[in-house]
Amino acid sequence: MTAIVNIFLKEGVLDPQGKAIHHALDAMNFEGVEDVRMGKQIVLKLTSNNKEDALKEVEKMAEDILANTVIEDYTIELV
Amino acid sequence: MKHIVVLQFPGTNCDLDTKYAFEKLSCKTTVIWHKEENLPENVDLIVVPGGFSYGDYLRSGAIAKFSPIMKAVIAYANNGGKVLGICNGFQILTEVGLLPGALKRNIGLHFISRFQTLKVVNNNNDFLQKCEKNEVLNIPIAHADGNYYIDEKDFNELEKNEQILLRYSDEHGEPVIVNGSVTSIAGVCNKNKNVFGLMPHPERALEEILGSTDGVKMLEGLIA
């Protein structure tokens, strides 16, 4: 099973990199972009085939190290 | 003679400057590799120095928090021992939860390396006890992830408990925006005032020939 962890700065926490990308898009005349948020994606290949156990385990990983929950939110997708 | 322990992670690059600084202040210093599990006996201060532990991979300071020595450092701090985190050390101490808040990418995305004036916000703590309140210090900064973030509720606590140590300021002490930090915060301490963290580098400001000696009274406070 594969777990995809997406990590983004929380809503309301200013994202300087997203903002810089937004400025660049504006400068390149890409119109119609309201907001840009930049995050990271971590892909984990798991040995477990039990979805429930895997989710629990990856949630713990996200809380303990993959995300800093003071400033970041995360989502987990199992495929 | 005070005994200072300086931690060393892969990618740390201010360990020897920090050792030199405390030796200049007549301390015994021991540099400890992060794989160690125990601290020496009779330690007066642990310094988590600056650098790029683990290449800043994942987030600055994120991987270092699981180094074997950190368990001993956390126990030492929770027992009332004094810990100072400088730059990457500050990031590590927020990651392990010894200090509140977190450090994000600078608002302008640049690595900033220069002298910066700082205002002493609170001096009723060991670290800044030799500085005057509202005094302006001139200390080098060198970081890309120094943008201090804390939510409003925790910020109010920080302010109420006088945990804000330093703010980036102009030469008159007026706050200035350097990296986007909440209210220009450059350094904080924990509630018990035994764990200190700051982005600026006092260990680089001990000699006139290097541009400032304002770091002396900061570090001296910790070994008084």
What does this structure look like?
The complex is a heterodimer of chains A (79) and B (224). Chain A is an alpha+beta fold and 79 residues long. Chain A has one domain: 2-Layer Sandwich (Mth169, Chain: A). Chain A contains two helices and three strands. Chain A has helices spanning 16-27, 51-66, and strands at 2-9, 39-45, 72-78. In chain A, strands 2-1-3 form a three-stranded antiparallel sheet, covered by helices on one side. The radius of gyration of chain A is 16 Å and the shape is elongated. Chain B has one domain: 3-Layer(aba) Sandwich (Rossmann fold). Chain B is 21% helix and 25% strand. The radius of gyration of chain B is 16 Å and the shape is globular. The termini of chain B are close together. The mean pLDDT of chain B is 97. Classes of the chains: A alpha+beta (79), B alpha/beta (224). The interface between A and B is medium-sized, with 11 and 21 residues.
Q: Numbering strands along the chain, what is their spatial order in the largest sheet of chain A?
A: 2-1-3
- What would the average pLDDT of chain B be, to the nearest integer? 97
What is the H level of CATH, i.e. the homologous superfamily of chain B?
Answer: Class I glutamine amidotransferase (GATase) domain
Q: Globular, elongated, flat, extended or rod-shaped: what is the shape of chain B?
A: globular
Helix and strand run of chain B? EHEEHEHEEEEHEEEH
CATH architecture descriptor text of chain A: 2-Layer Sandwich
The domain count of chain A comes to 1
The helix content of chain A, as a percent range, equals 25-40%
What fraction of residues of chain A sit in β-strands? 25-35%
Share of helix of chain B, binned: 10-25%
Mean pLDDT of chain A: 95
Biggest sheet details of chain B? 9 strands, mixed
- What is the radius of gyration of chain A computed over CA atoms, rounded to a whole number of angstroms? 16 Å
Taking the alpha carbons of the first and last residues of chain A, their distance comes to: 6 Å
Q: So what's the oligomer here? A: heterodimer
Please name the CATH architecture of chain B: 3-Layer(aba) Sandwich
